[in-house]
Design goal:
- With 400 residues, this protein is mainly α.
- The chain has three domains: 59 residues, no CATH class; 101 residues; 176 residues, Intergrase catalytic core (hpI Integrase, Chain A), CATH 1.10.443.
- Helix content is 49%, strand content 9%.
- The protein contains 15 helices and six strands.
- A hairpin with an 8-residue loop joins strand 2 and strand 3.
- Helix 2 crosses helix 5 and helix 3 packs across helix 5.
- The longest helix has 25 residues.
- It is globular.
């Protein structure tokens, strides 16, 4: 089965679309083809045509591998070796197989999970047969890991191992599940060996907003690649977009007439899609965000030109460096998005409306912010709403 993915790439400040078509079948003579286009429509059309071409080519190649004498009976001979993994294979082999074949999976694992699996191979747990993994071996692994990281990080390691076992067993039809780990998961959590990541509540303190902007102004003056980092920080808060969504925006996504921003690239990318698990959404363009974008836009700029010549990961690596330079402690880049969500909630917007900004399908994150709202900001916004309401009533009475 062939599949394709389309990713946005930047070339000289211009957003283009790179298509990669791959064939998963191991007997395919041609496994991969890629090409870059100026528009999403061209990329999508070529991807569909090439995918169909790969599948037709494979159909023609299948006949040499069929047993012409079988006459409908089960094939009793095959000229390639089947994987030798069984439930008695060590975890290391499951991880190696999964990392090698993960590139063909419909839903790729995250960079974090991939790193966790590679790290597990350095520990004794990787040498234990999958069917022999028990609480004591998991406990020993956790104790070794806790000397260098938090319990929440160990939880990612354990979850990644479970997924590797589960998906490799499914690929190779091995009659096992991840129960040898899952059955001990709750006990590991109760004993403190693994834990959920703690909910952050850090917000901008008084004077920190201007300090952060000044820090980024100073940083960008020394950069060879020119980016308005201060504008990115403002938009990151005001729009509540993820950093990857913000850095992927082009000027064609900004609709000043209808006052909205079209977000086409979401959080999760699925192979074979046009770039995202999520439906494209539009968020309101208003307030400070609108003023900043108006100021950033130059005359005669093309719609496919990227607003910022940087990737989301690059911004994430720059942020802690700038915070260290300006002496702000404990503030992370993701806290700015929480700050934006908090401000929307303090204005009186409901969870549903806030989710339209953030793109969350699960309101749990938004609900967690409710506990850390600033009472002074809520009162200030309520007074402003009441003042506006009184003014409107007065104008209505005068008109009557």
């Amino acid at each position: 089965m062939a599949y394709f993915d389309i990713t946005a790439v930047k070339s000289r400040d211009t957003k283009r679309y790179k298509v990669r078509v791959r064939e998963k079948n191991k007997f395919a003579s041609k496994k991969c083809e890629s090409k870059t286009f100026d528009t999403m429509q061209e990329a999508s059309n070529w991807a569909q045509q090439t995918k169909h071409k790969f599948e037709q080519l494979l159909e023609k190649q299948k006949s040499p591998y069929k047993n012409s004498l079988s006459n409908g009976r089960n094939i009793i001979f095959c000229n390639f070796d089947k994987p030798s993994l069984t439930e008695d294979s060590p975890l290391r082999e499951f991880i190696d197989y999964y990392l090698y074949h993960e590139v063909d999976a419909p839903n790729p694992i995250s960079i974090t999970s991939r790193g966790s699996l590679k790290l597990i191979k350095d520990y004794d747990l990787a040498n234990i047969h999958v069917s022999k993994i028990d609480f004591e071996s998991l406990k020993e692994f956790c104790l070794q890991r806790l000397t260098t990281c938090r319990a929440s990080t160990v939880r990612v390691d354990i979850s990644s191992a479970m997924r590797a076992i589960r998906e490799v067993a499914g690929m190779l039809e091995i009659p096992i599940t991840d129960s040898m780990i899952r059955n001990h998961y709750s006990q590991l959590k109760r004993d403190g060996f693994i834990a959920d990541a703690p909910n952050r509540s850090r917000r901008l303190l008084q004077g920190e907003f201007r300090k952060v902007l000044r820090g980024f102004w100073k940083y960008q003056r020394g950069c060879k690649v020119k980016n308005n980092y201060a504008a990115m920080i403002i938009l990151y808060i005001e729009t509540t977009l993820r950093s990857s969504e913000l850095t992927e925006l082009t000027w064609g996504d900004i609709d000043f007439v209808n006052e909205c921003i079209h977000v086409n690239s979401g959080k999760n990318t699925v192979r074979g899609s046009i770039g995202t698990n999520e439906e494209p959404r539009s968020i309101p363009l208003w307030g400070l965000a609108k003023k900043v974008l108006h100021k950033l836009k130059s005359k005669n700029v093309k719609n496919n030109t990227s607003i910022f010549n940087i990737k989301g990961r690059s911004l994430s690596s720059i942020f802690p460096k700038v915070m260290k330079q300006i002496g702000i402690i404990g503030l992370q880049q993701r806290d700015l998005r929480r700050e934006g969500v908090s401000r929307l909630l303090e204005m009186g917007l409901s969870e549903v409306l806030v989710a339209e900004f953030t793109g969350h399908k699960d309101y749990q994150m938004i609900r967690s912010v409710y506990k850390k709202l600033n009472a002074k900001n809520i009162i200030k916004n309520l007074e402003l709403i009441q003042q506006t309401k009184t003014t409107m009533q007065s104008n209505f009475m005068m008109a009557a």
